[in-house]
Design goal:
heterodimer, A: alpha+beta, 6-stranded mixed beta sheet, 9 helices, 22% helix, 30% strand, flat, B: mainly alpha, 11 helices, 0% strand, disordered C terminus
Chain lengths: 367, 205
């Protein structure tokens, strides 16, 4: 029981004291039952590298109805499943199952499980066919190994780009197992995290028996996190070394990319988007209270924003607010308590965007 | 007490994290049950995931951590409640509905459902009172922190806390409990009460 509670409330009656003592007693049976799962989750998520994926997985809760395009939102994953996701992320991403799952070559029940677990980062269901729902809207540049030049309109990802679906399709299943000419598509992003509105370049190489395969058309597929559908983001043709690069000119939401070419599908590449967050200090009532106005774009209503103050040991949590529909929120600051201290806010990452830290502001002395 | 564990956990130390989790998970679950979560385990797991994800950026002591943990938990609980309200009503299995009946609550308090019974008592308070008592008592936060989390003034929290505790104290099952706890012998023979509520002794038996 909180030791100073009785100082605040006066002496507690015996029966009430017993109830409160029980509420603060040690673990009851079953309350620590999830310890192993919690530890697995910690192992899978404590590192920075795991953070990116887990951010997606952990918050891949039901997509909002508007984002889901009217489809029924998926059920909330239950607790054990969520821990399993985190644990499986650590284990499986290190193993060969992931590539197989992305390519949809696992047995149907296993593929379905992989889809449930890794759907957020692009693992398809065994029955799922990605929809090439309309133009991708991104420009691309064919050929040009390693090049990142952008040529808007150079190749419209419209009809010509609507080739076979990526990984989920049959073409993926033919890649690893083909005895005649096993092909492999590698893919990487120019950055794993970009500022909202920035471009990202997805580069890849089509290989056959370790050698680059030139002159082959490759399609870039994109899936926004929280959405089920893949959309075509453009085509390019491998150069003499088998390399290919496609530029996505504007990225405003976390997205998963894969390259798909004849007989091969690349692993999924997750690129996260960090919204810009602005913090502006204004004077509140009486000159004693200041108001820190926070605004951002490319974040959603209800996203968590944390006020932080700089201390000798680093940035310390102060309190938390939520964004309004306009992407704003504010914190009242006591100029007396925080005078001459540096404060900032952090927008916490969600399924749709990465976390982001604002500019720093110095709180002036009161008056 | 948990400062060292917190420091270790923030650097990726598993033992440090487990110490934090073992210390706070029971209280987290109790808080979520009091505020009426259908699936407190689910919300708790979401809460810990967010904590772990951002732990390396966390700076502060145990008090700050508890405040952070329960702030996240409450947000997740609110989100879950909103989502639930958008879904068609469905029977809740294993929720506090099974404890709604007053006699059942009394029976569970008096017959050995120690923690669950106490949680059920709190859950019968009004929402404001239950949250104030839960954050103040179960989470162990001070009144200003509770006020910040609930978005209320400290005075309003104190009022809710007082009223909630008064309501609890007046509950017949709690009054009966006081009389039973004052007994010198347990209802299970000659076992001496050792400062524990007698239903805890029954659990041991």
């Amino acid at each position: 029981m909180n030791p100073d509670l009785s100082a605040e409330t006066g002496p507690l009656e015996p029966g009430l004291a017993e109830v409160l003592r029980t509420l603060t007693a040690g673990p009851a049976p079953g309350e620590l039952a999830g310890e192993r799962d919690a530890l697995a989750m910690f192992r899978a998520n404590a590192g920075q590298s795991a953070t990116a994926l887990t951010t997606v997985l952990a918050t891949d809760a039901p997509a909002p109805p508007e984002a889901a395009g009217g489809r029924q939102a998926p059920r909330r994953l239950r607790w054990s499943a969520r821990w399993a996701i985190a644990a499986a992320t650590a284990v499986t991403l290190c193993g060969g199952m992931t590539a197989a799952a992305y390519a949809a070559v696992l047995p149907a029940p296993v593929q379905h499980l992989a889809h449930d677990v890794f759907g957020a980062v692009g693992v398809p269901d065994e029955q799922h066919q990605p929809s090439s729902s309309g133009p991708g809207g991104h420009s691309l540049q064919p050929g040009a190994a390693g090049s990142r030049r952008t040529s808007p309109g150079a190749a419209s990802p419209s009809s010509s780009a609507r080739g076979p679906a990526p990984g989920p399709s049959a073409s993926a299943s033919s890649s690893p197992g083909s005895a005649s000419s096993p092909r492999q598509l590698l893919a990487s992003a120019s950055a794993s995290i970009v500022t909202a509105g920035s471009q990202v370049v997805i580069e890849g190489q089509l290989q056959s028996s370790g050698a680059g395969v030139p002159g082959t058309e490759v399609t870039l597929w994109e899936r926004l996190t929280g959405h089920a559908a893949w959309q075509n983001a453009g085509n390019a043709t491998t150069n003499s070394a088998g390399n290919v690069a496609v530029t996505v000119p504007v990225l405003t939401q976390n997205a998963v990319f894969r390259l798909a070419g004849t007989g091969a599908v690349s692993p999924a590449v997750l690129v996260r988007v960090s919204p810009l967050v602005s913090a502006v200090l204004g004077e509140g009532s009486g000159g004693v209270i200041d108001v820190l106005a926070v605004s951002t774009q490319d974040a959603q209503s209800g996203n968590d924003v944390v006020l932080q103050v700089e201390t000798a040991s680093g940035w310390a949590y102060v309190r938390e607010n939520r964004l309004t529909a306009a992407g704003t929120t504010s914190f009242t600051l006591s100029g007396k308590r925080l005078q001459n201290r540096q404060v900032r806010v952090e927008l916490l990452g969600t399924l749709r965007h990465a976390g982001s830290i604002s500019n720093q502001v110095t709180v002036p002395p009161p008056g | 007490m948990l400062d060292a564990a917190l420091a270790r956990a923030s650097t990726g130390d598993e033992a440090g994290f487990l110490e934090l989790w073992r210390a706070l998970q029971p209280r987290l679950l109790r808080f979520l049950r009091v505020v009426g979560c259908d699936d407190p385990d689910d919300i708790a797991s979401e809460t810990w995931l967010q904590v772990v994800r951002d732990l390396h950026r966390f700076s502060g002591g145990e008090e700050d951590f508890r405040r952070w943990l329960f702030t996240i938990a409450r947000h997740r609980a609110v989100d879950a409640a909103r989502a639930r309200s958008r879904r068609p009503a469905a029977p809740v299995a294993g929720g506090l509905d099974i404890l709604a009946d007053r006699q059942q609550v009394e029976d569970q308090v008096l017959d050995g459902m120690s923690v669950q019974g106490a949680i059920a008592l709190l859950a019968r308070l009004s929402k404001d009172q239950a949250e104030a008592v839960a954050l103040r008592v179960i989470a162990g936060l001070d009144t200003p922190d509770v006020a910040r989390i609930l978005g209320k003034s400290p005075g309003a929290v104190r009022v809710a806390l007082h009223r909630g505790l008064r309501t609890l104290a007046a509950d017949p099952s709690v009054r009966a409990l006081a009389g039973r706890a004052a007994a010198t012998t347990s209802p299970f023979g000659s076992t001496e009460l050792t400062g524990q509520p007698f239903w805890a002794l029954k659990e041991v038996d």
